[in-house]
Amino acid sequence: MTTSGTENGRFRFPPIHPEGIQFVVISAIIVGLLHLILGRMSPWIGLTLWFIPVAVYLFFRDPERVPPQDEAAIVSPADGTVCMIAEVPMPTELKSSVTEPVWRVSIFMSVFNVHVNRAPAAGKITATHYVQGLFINASLDKASEQNERKMYLMETSHGKTLAFVQIAGLVARRIVSFVEEGAAVGRAQRFGLIRFGSRVDVYLPLGVRPNVLVGQTMIAGETVLARNEN
């Protein structure tokens, strides 16, 4: 059963991902120093500055997610909004054996979304590829071919080929990956994050159609994108 509630309703103070601890500490030290200096002129200015480390913490929050019990379900890899759905070829860089067009679902993450990414299905990572590209608006279609990105090709536990791609955006300046080629991953397992606004594309298996619509709000590891029918 897919959870429909928002993360804020279930996790008022979710844990922070270890990747973000250093950023929270650094921002807190800087704000603390500024508070000592500016607080003498205006206590309100000093207090307002503490919003910065709180915002950094919120960006790196990492709430637990409960994937649906349906083993055939392919879940969203990211929190955010579906910005595009299109039939396109698999990324050529991954050298997939699938040559026919497949459905691609693109999820745009704003700076307010959880940025920890989760595997859309269970399986083995058979190939990865990193492209050092541009940093144009991640919601644009051309970002799939021009922006900095990390690609993953997977053979699912159902024996089908699926791909997913982390794409950096205007503000994002680093893609962080937790898995590499040859790794076995579970559905909804954390596989990476992108710092400060970005997008994740999912290339569904051949013949599998998406069950979501453009504009729909997604929850990583929980919202069902499609079903991996046998």
In summary, what is this structure?
By secondary structure, this protein is an alpha+beta fold. The chain is built from five helices and 13 strands. The strands form three sheets. The protein has an eight-stranded antiparallel beta sheet with strand order 9-5-6-7-11-3-2-12, with no helix packed on it. A three-stranded antiparallel beta sheet has the order 4-10-8, with no helix packed on it. The protein has a two-stranded antiparallel sheet with strand order 1-13.
Description:
The structure is a single chain. The chain is of the alpha+beta class. It folds into two domains: about 20-60, no CATH class; about 75-225, Glucose Permease (Domain IIA) (Distorted Sandwich), CATH 2.70.70. The chain is built from five helices and 13 strands. Helix 2 runs antiparallel to helix 4. The longest helix has 21 residues, at about 20-40. The two termini are about 20 Å apart. About 35% of the residues are buried. Residues about 1-10 have low confidence and may be disordered.
Task: Indicate the topology.
Layout: H1 7-10, H2 18-38, H3 43-48, H4 51-59, E1 73-75, E2 80-88, E3 102-109, E4 116-118, E5 123-131, H5 143-146, E6 149-156, E7 161-168, E8 175-177, E9 184-185, E10 190-194, E11 198-203, E12 217-218, E13 224-227
Antiparallel strand pairs: 1-13, 2-3, 2-12, 3-11, 4-10, 5-6, 5-9, 6-7, 7-11, 8-10
